[in-house]
Amino acid sequence: MKIVVPIMPKTLAELATIDERKFTAVDMIEWRADFMTFSELEQAARDVKIKFSKHEIIFTYRTEDKVETQISATDYAALIERFAADFDYIDVEKFTFPDVVLPENAIFSYHDFDQIPERLPDILSDMIAENPAVVKFAGMPRDFADVLRLMQDTLAASEKAPHQTFVTMAMGKIGQVTRLMGDEFGSSWTFATVEAASAPGQLSVADILTLTKILEN
Ligand SMILES: O=C1C[C@@](O)(C(=O)O)C[C@@H](O)[C@@H]1O
Which residues form the active site (predicted)? Predict the structure, then answer.
């Protein structure tokens, strides 16, 4: 399981203060560009790539979780087109913006902040059908049965589509097991924290490393 750590700087100055030495044990950086103003994105993209030149980097502009970042379909498509080739992966909210053409390195990304939907198997199938580099789903479980269902549905999807990379997680405290046991149920990356969390239930990188080591033995 690869460890991905989100960074969420609000300004160029804040980006400059991030200490990249804290990220040595991390496989991938997710730059959450949605915390910054549009006018700073060009410069920030250059700075992020210099600062994390040794890491794979995901470009993410998240609109699903806050009203302030809900942008027009045209602006969103322009953003994806502008930044796709500059980063190793680019997060695309294809269900929200169905007209966006998925770049080769697209993470087809979908969040449900209320539930783990009953129709998750169909959702995963619809995502696989678009042939993205990565299928990513994050949902909010209401009980542990929901967490088990997410793991089971991911396992079934990964067995049906063995060449597809999946990243799935149940958010919140009861979902934390999904952030540790991805290898067992077909999820290839785990999102973890070095400083601030970008979603509820994320564990620290140090905890992930300790706990996955224990679980492996
Ligand atoms: O999609 C995801 C997963 C995530 O929501 C999580 O639950 O860890 C964190 C986000 O930063 C990332 O874009």
Answer: 111, 136
